[in-house]
Amino acid sequence: MAKYLLLKHYRGAPAAVNDVPMDRWTPEEISAHVRYMNDFAARLEESGEYVDSQALSPEGMFVRYDGEGRPPVTDGPFPETKDVIAGWMVIDVDSEERAVELAGELSAAPGAGGRPIHEWLELRPFLGAHPTVEE
Amino acid sequence: MDETLLRNLTPGVLGILVRRGADFAAAEDAVQDALVEAVRTWPSDPPRDPRGWLVTVAWRRFLDAARSDTARRRREDLVDGEPEPGPAAAVDDTLRLYFLCAHPSLTPASAVALTLRAVGGLTTRQIARAYLVPEATMAQRISRAKRTVADARFDRPGDVATVLRVLYLVFNEGYSGDVDLAAEALRLTRGLAAAVDHPEAAGLLALMLIHHARRAARTAPDGALVPLAEQDRSLWDTRAIAEGVGILQGALARDRPGEFQVQAAIAALHADAPTAGETDWVQIVEWYDELVRLTGSPVVRLNRAVAVGEADGPRAGLAALAELDAALPRYTAVAAYLHERDGREEEAARLYAEAARGAADLAERDHLTRRAARINARLRG
């Protein structure tokens, strides 16, 4: 088994095929989208492949250490050019093929006009456990 | 309370329930309940006959569940007057259980989860934590696995090789988490090797014993990986190595070679060398040739190239490497090592850094990065 991160971007990924901002969908289209996402997660739980999913606020800042006794320096909000993560799902699957298949399914979530968004999701393998037998 | 003793009793108890007519899925649930109950009550009230206690409690749980479920009423027809099987039957029961949990219709992950719970007696929570997934996910994985094997017949022997592959997967998952999966795999393989007369089961047990014996030497106090050549050999568990070598010799004498026996033979040759410099690489290369013949695996060929590099010099190792696909996992790491041994340090440092970027696990990545850093520091000298 291997864990993969499915990363959804607010900004920074190539443009989706059905690229209409969510605030211009109908309320029914939004409901259909949310239902699709929930059903997808429920199916993964049922198949024993679900690990975690979270959504992130688009607002945020950069923070860094600024030396002994000084408060951390903050910077932000993110500039328009910055890649912004919208959320993620973590799955635990038997193969990379299965991970790609699931990412494809998630990318088919319905958007404007009830048609699939075809959005680009970033798929990243976790660094796994070190094998016991290695010579 | 000795939880290992408790868990050792699990497969036998489950086998008895199934022989009495309980279906596997319901029996397995009942045994889990009995185990949980045992953990709760045994410390203050230890039973005289632990196995008998577990059978009684599990059977009662099974009956309660069967009675409360009217749709499954038919089960009750089976419950009365079944004799308790003798000890010989218990061995067969255990073996059948191993086969069922590694059934070829299961995915590797499902077979692993089901084996750890039904044969290993671990709780769903422990298995979930060992594999870093939510408990609900692991519970689903196990119940799906049970549904998948529901129609599999429990009375037919299976293929030992499929069971060995599952146990090897568990062993290789390593030492992270609350449950020591390597130790658990070792315990289960010991149980299998006792229940079935098969040289590869013995071979896998030997392989695990020898690798497990080096465990204390494999990581530095800061958690960094210590490669075999740099390990403090005084930390190796010589008793476990001796046991592994003894089991291996018994298996090899039967002249039915298999990949686990050969891997164990290679591990034994490493274990036999008082210092890394005294390793018998020529013999190791011969075993790798045998392993290539048995498996045809490109990963084995890659490891063979390392051994050739030690036996016949880094140039010979690089020549063996040149015949392989550069896209193989760890190919670049091996190339880096052989270049370093050949004195081409700049190229080695570059390759180590490249290999680190492609590493599949954190310990390996850090190790390769350190190798690159060490050479770069020397070059700056």
From TrEMBL, chain A:
InterPro entries: Dimeric_a/b-barrel, YCII. Residues 15-109 form the YCII-related domain. Pfam families: YCII. PANTHER family: BLL7171 PROTEIN (PTHR35174:SF3), BLL7171 PROTEIN-RELATED (PTHR35174). Belongs to the YciI family. This is Uncharacterized conserved protein. It comes from Nocardiopsis flavescens.
TrEMBL record, chain B:
It holds the Pfam family DUF6596. Residues 97-148 form the RNA polymerase sigma factor 70 region 4 type domain. One of its GO terms (biological process) is DNA-templated transcription initiation. Residues 7-69 form the RNA polymerase sigma-70 region domain. Keywords: Sigma factor, Transcription, Transcription regulation. InterPro entries: DUF6596 (IPR046531), RNA_pol_sigma70_r2 (IPR007627), RNA_pol_sigma70_r4_t2 (IPR013249), RNA_pol_sigma_r2 (IPR013325), RNA_pol_sigma_r3/r4-like (IPR013324), WH-like_DNA-bd_sf (IPR036388). It comes from the Bacteria. Residues 161-251 form the DUF6596 domain. GO terms for molecular function: DNA binding; sigma factor activity. Gene3D superfamilies: 1.10.1740.10, Winged helix-like DNA-binding domain superfamily/Winged helix DNA-binding domain (1.10.10.10). The keyword Kinase does not apply. Belongs to the sigma-70 factor family. ECF subfamily. PANTHER family: BLL6612 PROTEIN (PTHR47756:SF2), BLL6612 PROTEIN-RELATED (PTHR47756). This is RNA polymerase sigma factor, sigma-70 family.
